[in-house]
């Protein structure tokens, strides 16, 4: 099948491409990029006013299947991913049963092959049942299709276990994704420790609890040489620790979420809205400023959604008992377009780096390129489309969102994977 994308602004900083071009795709492969191109047969898509980017990738998604399909499943989660402009996602292992063996990884791969709308890359657990004690058979899971390992949501408290995991993962090599949290300092904390936690009467969680755990893992990373990726950074102390680690040449990467870039504990000051309950929690204005600075200077490599779908009964309860997290697949790109690209804080080139290239590199998988001979995994953006975040208009099963009612401008209008439309004019292709 031939497809002509006509007159869009095509941007790929990896190949120094930024201009108005036509793109010819044939049998899933980019065949030609140029001006005034035509095809004798096939489909022509007018991309005037649109932005064509390498397909976006989310490296921190919770698909919930197997075990928690009432929250989300592979079919609904990947529909949400495509709706948000992603051509690929990596899914965390805190399912039921936990993805801590090759059988569960194999199940996810097979189910994705049957029902997923985008590419799915499973992440296996570092320890059995996420208990932080006995290491999993990482080699078996890699053979089954896992791309990295994490005990996301809990973190490994025992330094000896983490060192063993790094020594093991270094052999392949594979990336360990660390949820950084020293539980001896967190206690029952469910919001950032500070004046807001005191005002609300909620137990606080200090930012240093994240930094101490991250600093430990950075030193273990230096010792072992294992690739370490720090998930959902929230504290300015952690940004400083990462900056220092990179200056020392330690192989560590990091991600930040849209909610930590755009919200602070102050958003909780007049409400007990459980949609704002996160782990790690929303922190101070100073922390948020440091996250943005770290993103811009390269200390933080990636933007990841940490898409955390929950059923209504898990969020609509007392704050301390409510589940952590917010959905993010369908809002991450639009939030970045509205509050960073449109305001000139960073451009489309940086967006490609943070939401397409860097997350794939962190996992050791191939990046996506817009050049002749490349597989046509593309995200097409309508930068002028305005909408209000509405939980009733979702592809995800879940309705929990920290951004309900926000007015956003810019969205993914079309998504192509291997040259085929997975979303066309804002509608997921069945």
Task: Provide an overview of this structure.
The protein has helices spanning 74-83, 102-115, 138-144, 159-170, 183-186, 195-200, 208-224, 236-247, 258-262, 285-297, 312-315, 332-341, 348-363; strands at 2-12, 17-26, 29-34, 43-46, 51-54, 56-61, 86-91, 119-124, 148-150, 175-178, 191-192, 204-205, 228-230, 252-256, 302-303, 378-388, 407-417, 420-424, 427-428. The longest helix is centred in the middle third of the chain and has 17 residues, at 208-224. The chain contains 13 helices and 19 strands. Helix content is 30%, strand content 24%. It has 430 residues and is α/β, with parallel strands linked by helices. The protein starts with a strand and ends with a strand. The mean pLDDT is 97. The strands form three sheets. Strands 1, 2, 3, 4, 5, 16, 17, 18 and 19 form a nine-stranded mixed β-sheet that branches. The chain has an eight-stranded parallel β-sheet with strand order 6-7-8-9-10-13-14-15. It has a two-stranded parallel ribbon with strand order 11-12.
């Amino acid at each position: 099948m031939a497809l002509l994308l006509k007159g869009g602004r095509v941007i790929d900083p990896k190949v120094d491409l930024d201009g108005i071009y036509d793109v010819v795709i044939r049998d899933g492969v980019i065949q030609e990029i140029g001006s005034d191109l035509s095809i004798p047969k096939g489909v022509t898509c007018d991309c005037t006013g649109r932005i064509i980017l390498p397909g976006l990738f989310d490296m921190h998604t919770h698909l919930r299947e197997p075990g928690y399909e009432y929250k989300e499943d592979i079919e609904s989660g990947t529909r949400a991913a495509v709706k948000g402009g992603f051509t690929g996602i990596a899914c965390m292992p805190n399912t039921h049963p936990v993805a801590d063996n090759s059988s569960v990884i194999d199940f996810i791969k097979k189910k994705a092959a049957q029902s997923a709308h985008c590419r799915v890359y499973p992440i296996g657990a570092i320890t059995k049942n996420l208990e932080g004690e006995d290491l999993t058979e990482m080699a078996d899971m890699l053979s089954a299709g896992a791309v990295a390992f994490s005990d996301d949501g809990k973190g490994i408290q025992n330094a000896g276990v983490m060192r063993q995991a790094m020594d093991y993962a270094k052999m392949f090599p594979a990336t360990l994704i660390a949820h950084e949290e020293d539980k001896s300092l967190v206690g029952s904390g469910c919001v950032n420790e500070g004046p807001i936690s005191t005002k609300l009467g909620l137990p606080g969680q200090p930012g240093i609890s994240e930094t101490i755990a991250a600093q430990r893992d950075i030193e273990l990373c230096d010792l072992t040489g294992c690739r370490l990726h720090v998930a959902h950074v929230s504290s300015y102390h952690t940004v400083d620790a990462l900056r220092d680690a990179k200056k020392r040449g330690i192989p560590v990467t990091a991600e930040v979420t849209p909610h930590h870039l755009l919200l602070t504990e102050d958003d909780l000051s007049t409400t007990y809205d459980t949609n704002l309950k996160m782990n790690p929690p929303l922190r101070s204005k100073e922390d948020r400023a440091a996250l943005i600075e770290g993103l811009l200077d390269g200390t933080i490599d990636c933007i990841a959604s940490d898409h955390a779908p929950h059923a209504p009964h898990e969020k609509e309860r007392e704050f301390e008992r409510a589940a952590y997290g917010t959905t993010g697949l369908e809002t991450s790109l639009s939030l970045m377009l509205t509050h960073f690209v449109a305001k000139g804080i960073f451009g489309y080139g940086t967006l490609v780096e943070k939401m397409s290239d860097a997350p794939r590199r962190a996992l050791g998988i191939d990046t996506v390129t817009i050049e002749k001979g490349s597989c046509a995994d593309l995200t097409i953006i309508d930068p002028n489309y305005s909408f209000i975040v509405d939980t009733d208009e979702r592809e995800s099963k879940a309705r929990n969102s920290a951004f309900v009612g926000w007015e956003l401008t810019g969205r993914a209008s079309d998504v192509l994977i291997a040259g085929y439309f997975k979303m066309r004019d804002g509608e997921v292709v069945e």
